[in-house]
Amino acid sequence: MTPLSEVKVVILGQDPYHALGQAEGLAFSVQNGIKMPPSLRNIFKELQSDLHIQPPMSGSLLPWTAQGVLLLNTCLSVEQGEAGSHAKRGWETLTDRLIQAVAARPQPCVFMLWGSYAQAKSTLIRSAAGGPQLVLEANHPSPLSALRGPAPFRGCRHFSQAQAWLADHGQPLNWRLDP
Fold first, then answer.
1. How far is Cα 129 from Cα 26, in angstroms, rounded to an integer?
2. C-beta pairs of 30-38 under 8 Å, 24+ apart in sequence
3. What is the pTM of this model?
4. Residue positions annotated with a catalytic role
5. In what order do the strands lie in the sheet with 69-73?
6. What torsion do the CA atoms of 13, 16, 19, 24 make, to the nearest 10 degrees?
7. Which of 30, 78, 115, 168 could, after both became Cys, cross-link 140 (CB 3.0–4.6 A)?
8. Per-residue pLDDT of the chain (179 residues; tens, 9 = 90+)
9. How far apart are CA 115 and CA 14, in angstroms?
10. 137-163 pLDDT, tens digit each
11. CB–CB of 73/97 below 8 Å?
């Protein structure tokens, strides 16, 4: 959905939603008509708190992909009802290469690393640095960790930080999801 040459932001998560019918191939996103998972509700709460953007009616993050936001998980599959169940089964080799390819480009890029699985990629990102980068880290937006220290997701202000940094680098981005 987001060509490599157009990536401005990488939002990195752990693995797909593990409830039946939730995952749609974009990290943290669900198709129209699917009930919003708690992590996504927390993302929308942070977006509203940070940029005063009203939460959309749908949980689809597809409009972000058209603006250069790559929604990627470190692992691309999961057993139903078992978060992290396909970790260390080979997906990381593929997603690591993708992360390195994005980081190695000369274009400015923001990396939002949400949760420990994503944060483990910070060294990989920095070592592949081709152009200017902003690496933002916070806890996973899950209700289990969104408010916990030392880096709570709620209140992290990643959306405004990314928007301002990208604007400073001539890469405007609008986080609104509704038309």
1. 24
2. 30/59, 30/60, 31/59, 31/60, 32/58, 32/59, 32/60, 33/58, 34/59, 35/59, 38/142, 38/143
3. 0.92
4. 15
5. 69-73, 9-13, 109-114, 133-138
6. 120
7. 115
8. 899 999 999 999 887 767 677 778 899 999 988 999 999 999 999 999 999 999 999 999 999 999 999 999 987 766 676 766 556 777 788 889 999 999 999 999 999 999 988 999 999 999 988 889 999 999 999 998 999 988 999 999 999 999 999 999 999 999 999 86
9. 7
10. 999 999 989 999 889 999 999 999 999
11. no
Residues listed for the chain: 179
Query: To which residue do tokens 């959905």 refer?
Result: 1
Task: Yes or no: say if 61 and 141 are a contact pair by the CB < 8 Å rule.
Answer: no
| Nearest by Cα to 18 from 73, 97, 88, 61 | 73
